[in-house]
Amino acid sequence: AQTVTQSQPEMSVQEAETVTLSCTYDTSESNYYLFWYKQPPSRQMILVIRQEAYKQQNATENRFSVNFQKAAKSFSLKISDSQLGDTAMYFCAFMTSGRDDKIIFGKGTRLHILP
Amino acid sequence: EAEVAQSPRYKITEKSQAVAFWCDPISGHATLYWYRQILGQGPELLVQFQDESVVDDSQLPKDRFSAERLKGVDSTLKIQPAELGDSAMYLCASSLAGRDTDTQYFGPGTRLTVL
To answer: Is residue A2's pLDDT more than 90?
Structure first.
């Protein structure tokens, strides 16, 4: 069975700093997807970034980038120039490749951006 | 921008009562998901629909939970009777066709408290 582990329950950083959220996963599959979702307080969860396992290049979306280490089964999220609006729960998630396969979420990291 | 709608946003009930949650996915989205998110944890899939058909309900406690999507559009999740352990956030999500390349869009959720 696939598992997703986020070892940092809570983090705080100053505005404009860079922060890295850790995630490891376990799977025997070779084709899969990895995601970072953001859940702001009292707002809906949104997709921040996704990574296809077959792609060696790390995904980037503006200030958000990932460090995907397939052999180590590690998928960390880096937020550059952090902003107050980045305050949220961040979930790392995994999905095997194939129609109708479900997403497995980690327990989340609560990130506080301090003014 | 189109969003997934859910109602009610909050529900307080007593144990042994029946509760129902409603979800309206983004127009044109064939795949609909119901997740349960216990406080401090990531979402866990309860049931997945492709149009009006159930694709995966392996994690749905069928003795008390039921879900339907009769016309393949909006959906209702019901709990009867509710138990204390059912207190959680119930999230609905939708995607275009359930392909692994399709992004899941989440609604704001219904927070259930069972007293």
So the answer is: no
